[in-house]
Amino acid sequence: MRGWRKEALIVAAFYAAYSLVRNRFGSALVAGTEVPTRAFANAMGVIRVERWLGSYHEETLQELVLPHLWLVRAANVWYGTTHFLVTLGAFVALYLRRRDVFALWRNVLAAVTAIALVGFMLLPVMPPRLLDAPCPPADWGGACIASDLRTGDGAESFGFVDTIRTYGGPWAFDRGAGAKLSNQFAAMPSLHVGWALWCVMAWWPFVRRRAARAALVAYPIVTSLVIVVTANHFWLDALGGAVAYAIALPIGVRVHAWRSARAAARAERAPGRASTLRG
Questions:
Q1: 3-state DSSP helix/strand/coil percent for the chain, to nearest 5?
Q2: What residues pair up with 186 in beta bridges, in sequence order?
Q3: Which of 106-120, 129-143, 260-274 has the highest mean pLDDT?
Q4: What are the distances in angstroms from CA 35 to CA 32, 108, 233, 236?
Q5: What is the pTM of this model?
Q6: Cα 75–77–83 angle (5° rounding)?
Q7: Alpha carbon distance 213, 206 (integer Å)
Q8: How far apart are CA 263 and CA 71, in angstroms?
Q9: pLDDT at residue 132, rounded to an integer
Q10: Following DSSP, what letter does each residue of 173-228 receive, concatenated?
Q11: Which H/E stretch holds residue 263?
């Protein structure tokens, strides 16, 4: 029970940190702050980079999926559920079945989450689905931003469809609990992709069957496609999630090694203290 309480406290601490970032830098803000304008301008920066690379094709990819309503709804469900359920399932399974490596991967997960939170604070990015969003009912949609920050090529709109708002999903981001608990400017880096890569790498050494390994490989790939076709992220956000994971992995390994060395040192000193007391 002590182990579970410790892990619960760690999760609670990270949720508290996320809430702080969300409330101070996210979309759950009062009107009149500069964050929406910053988020829109940063989204324009992402688009300019993708255009320079010749890879700004998110709208085209979404258009291929939109005629297939079942696929759109499946993508909405995937986006709204797997991010939490798969990660939580992998976390609990590691604790129950792989205690020898649980602390290591817990540290990696904490590191990638912390890196993402820093990214959300320093670089709020408006997702594609909000670039054409009108002012009401939310007063931080892209349509509220001054025209000199828009595309600059004479386009009247960006053409993205907010699939969750239009076709429905597990919850809505523009009303109710979804609007209060989510940071809709937390697009860069994509924590969906960062956590998906964590799930794959944490379990890869313990999966032997080809079908299971194929499912692991498919998970971050499908997740990357889903976040784009639902217009919740640009593909550069997905790359940002992968970079966040790549940075977090060695950090988690070093923290684990440091904590293990401290624990070993304490264990070596304990018998000596006990012998002194007996003498």
A1: 75, 0, 25
A2: 125
A3: 106-120
A4: 9, 29, 18, 20
A5: 0.84
A6: 95
A7: 10
A8: 50
A9: 81
A10: SSSHHHHHH--TTB-SS-HHHHHHHHHHHHHGGG--SHHHHHHHHHHHHHHHHHHH
A11: helix 235-278
